[in-house]
Design goal:
Blueprint (H helix, E strand, L loop, with lengths): L24 E7 L5 H11 L8 E6 L3 H10 L4 E5 L6 H11 L4 E6 L2 E3 L3 H6 L7 E12 L29 E2 L6 E5 H6 L18 H13 L4 E14 L6 H22 L1 H4 L1 H23 L5 H33 L6
Parallel strand pairs: 1-2, 1-4, 2-3, 6-9
Antiparallel strand pairs: 4-8, 5-9, 6-8, 7-9
């Protein structure tokens, strides 16, 4: 949806050139800060050497005049630099790219992620199936020195925007992809209204779930056998800075993820919004706790029990964020004088 609440509409353009029945691909990269300039340049350079070159690469700058000026003069040819014409935030920036893109398929890449050479090819292959409306690739963490903290559990790598323990196998259905490496059919994304503003990251505020909410709406609108699938061979290396490898960031991100899930549940219904969390909470996390404790008990060192403790605390913090989100919504509804029942 646009920031006025209207459906995001495509911008008229000449039909893109097609390759023997294969969908054309636009890559959309969103950026908001000069602090990631080197990562951004590396990611864009990797896009120039793909086994399947995209139709176009669109860089959308999110209300950052200094970054916009440098991008327009300091990038190699082949990248179209755009401004986010919607409300500040990742949702608005992605919508700005989607509105003008010429490809049948939109692949979204984070500004601090570097794709493998076959990322476009692997991330697009599944769209040969008409029932596939979206794809999610693999995001491998690229930790800054000194590397991944010993206490950080595999099952919570979503905290740093990476693929985590509990995801299904390659080709399996997903509720939603990871934002660092994902794709949607442009027509389906536009028909569903695009990403919703008010959900998702704005600057450094560690909220999320905009991909979840959009994915659910796209499938609900299409109905039938519409699927989003995991394309495990579409790999990006997602940088994890030291400020995200701290307990403080871990807890903040967990809390706001829970809050965001409450917002999504209110928008699309809790059945769809929490469908993946049920198995994650009842199967993946208990297994991670037991494994961590067992590792320490059998001489594996303190890291195992530390990871088990992080799982418990992370889950509790996420649940607290969800509860806070529900209470905040109810307070807003009560304040309007609207009766529920």
């Amino acid at each position: 949806m646009s920031d006025a609440g209207h459906v995001l509409a495509p911008t008229p353009s000449a039909p893109p050139a097609r390759t023997a029945g294969a969908p054309t691909v636009s890559v959309v990269v969103c950026a908001y800060t000069l602090d990631r300039w080197d990562d951004l340049v590396a990611g864009l350079a990797a896009l120039r050497h793909q086994t399947r070159p995209p139709l176009e690469v669109l860089l959308v700058v999110d209300h950052a005049p200094d970054l916009l000026a440098r991008a327009r003069t300091g990038l190699a040819p082949g990248v179209t630099v755009l401004e986010n014409v919607f409300e500040r935030g990742l949702s608005g920036a992605r919508n700005s790219g989607a509105a003008v893109a010429g490809g049948d398929v939109l692949l979204f890449l984070d500004d601090d992620a570097r794709p493998d050479p076959d990322w476009v090819e692997a991330g697009t292959a599944a769209f040969a199936d008409p029932a596939v409306v979206g794809t999610g690739g693999t995001a491998v963490p690229a930790w800054d020195a000194p590397g991944r903290p010993a206490w950080f559990p595999e099952s919570f790598l979503w905290v740093v925007g990476c693929s985590y323990e509990g995801l299904p196998g390659d080709g399996a259905p997903l509720r939603n992809p990871i934002g660092a490496s994902m794709g949607f059919r442009r027509a389906d994304l536009l028909a569903a209204g695009g990403f919703t503003s008010g959900i998702g990251r704005v600057g450094r505020h560690p909220v999320g779930c905009e991909e979840t909410e959009l994915s659910i709406r796209v499938r609900q609108r299409r109905g039938g056998a519409a699927r989003i699938v995991l394309t495990g061979e579409a790999v990006v290396h997602h940088r994890v800075r030291t400020d995200r490898a701290t307990v403080g960031y871990f807890l903040r991100r967990c809390f706001w993820e829970g809050f965001s899930k409450a917002v999504v549940a209110a928008a699309v219904g809790s059945e769809d919004a929490l469908s993946s969390e049920r198995s994650y909470a009842t199967q993946v996390l208990p297994h991670a706790v037991v494994r961590g404790i067992r590792s320490t008990a059998t001489g594996g060192g303190a890291a195992g029990v530390q990871q088990a403790a992080a799982v418990v605390v992370g889950f509790g913090t996420t649940a607290a964020g969800y509860a806070y989100g529900l209470l905040a919504r109810r307070s807003r509804v009560a304040g309007t004088g609207v009766r529920r029942g």
